[in-house]
Write a structure and sequence with these properties.
The chain has eight helices and nine strands. By secondary structure, it is of the alpha/beta class. The chain has a single domain, classed as NAD(P)-binding Rossmann-like Domain (Rossmann fold). The strands form two sheets. The chain has a seven-stranded parallel β-sheet, with helices on both faces. Helix 4 packs parallel to helix 5. The structure holds nicotinamide-adenine-dinucleotide (NAD). Nicotinamide-adenine-dinucleotide (NAD) binds next to helix 1, helix 4 and helix 6.
């Protein structure tokens, strides 16, 4: 694994020992401390941060004052985003235990123990179980599971170990992990058997992971986007983009990455959210094809 040596200046934070924001809720029995995790000054790591949704999450968290590590197997993408936001670029394949360990160690050295992990990295290799050329190559199925499910788990387990050593915030919280699944986890289309299985695995991990990590004060959540306007989608012909957008009941358009990032922000801030998958899809339910 190659690390990008250049540590770009990080935004001025308020220190990781900062406790949650004070909540003044008149007439409600909510503790004064707690309720909101303060993002400013916290160490965040975004996988897949070199492109699309992950790049937007990295920009958004940096805009809120987090110290952001941008991790991607695509080094140029990670470096470009890190440079733009004053973050740390990490070149890493999330499926490799040693690379991921080194990446988290480098992020800790630059920013302190992790508080926020957003796992966005993922791939889609389409293919029917029985195609024109015979059964789907086992390597293709395994590759998608390896990146989307095992890679997400790899980052989650290592980030959790890093978070577990951090000082407690309000409510005893130490950190939060947001994983990225897809509506295909529920309504996988023809040719999406590997992708749907990998994303359903992320849905299945969410509650047991939250239960496992509860004693360490670490929350686990997941977002299931529908159709998001990222470079992958925006490279499709305009008429196809339009018809995809029109398939969404309301609002009838592709989602924007910044809508995903706003949900990440809310999930990080709202300490009572845990063990849940939230669909972000405008009521879309995917058809078979
Ligand atoms: N765009 C959509 O409509 C949509 C819908 C549902 C779910 N999603 C999910 O959202 C996530 C992001 O999608 P996107 O459209 O931004 O895709 P994208 O291709 O623009 O970004 C994915 C990033 O992940 C990185 N990556 C891939 N394999 C990696 C690995 N092994 N290690 C480290 N980084 C790796 C890529 O280099 C890339 O920068 C994916 O998990 C995808 O499955 C996207």
């Amino acid at each position: 694994m190659t690390f990008h040596d250049c540590r770009f200046p990080v935004p001025k934070g308020e220190g990781s020992a900062r406790t949650g924001a004070e909540a003044e809720i008149v007439g409600q029995n909510i503790p004064k401390k707690g309720f909101l995790m303060q993002i400013a000054g916290q160490a965040a790591l975004v996988t897949g941060g070199g492109s699309g949704i992950g790049a937007d999450v990295a920009r958004h968290l940096a805009g809120l004052g987090a110290k952001v590590a941008v991790l991607d197997v695509n080094r140029e993408g990670a470096e470009a985003v890190a440079k733009e936001i004053g973050g740390l670029a990490l070149s890493c394949d999330i499926t490799k235990a040693d690379q991921a360990e080194q990446a988290i160690a480098a992020a800790r050295a630059a920013h302190g123990p992790l508080r926020i992990l957003v796992n966005v990295a993922g791939i889609l290799i389409p293919g029917r179980i029985l195609g024109k050329e015979g059964p789907l190559a086992l390597e293709k199925f395994a590759k998608v599971i390896e990146v989307n499910l095992i890679g997400t788990f790899n980052m989650m387990r290592l980030a959790a170990a890093d978070m577990a050593g951090a000082e407690q915030l309000a409510d005893g919280e130490r950190g939060v992990i947001v994983n990225t699944t897809s509506v295909a986890a529920y309504e996988g289309q023809i040719g999406q058997v590997a992708y749907a299985a990998s994303k359903a695995g992320i849905v299945g991990m969410t509650l047991p992971a939250a239960r496992d990590l509860a004693r360490s004060g670490i929350r686990v959540l997941a977002i299931a986007p529908g159709l998001v306007a990222t470079p992958m989608m925006l490279n499709l012909p305009p008429d196809i983009q339009k018809s995809l957008g029109e398939s969404v009941p309301f609002p009838s358009r592709l989602a924007e990455a910044r809508e995903f990032s706003r949900l990440v922000q809310h999930m990080v801030e709202n300490v009572m959210l845990n063990g849940e998958v939230v669909r972000l899809d405008g009521a879309l339910r995917l058809a078979p094809k």
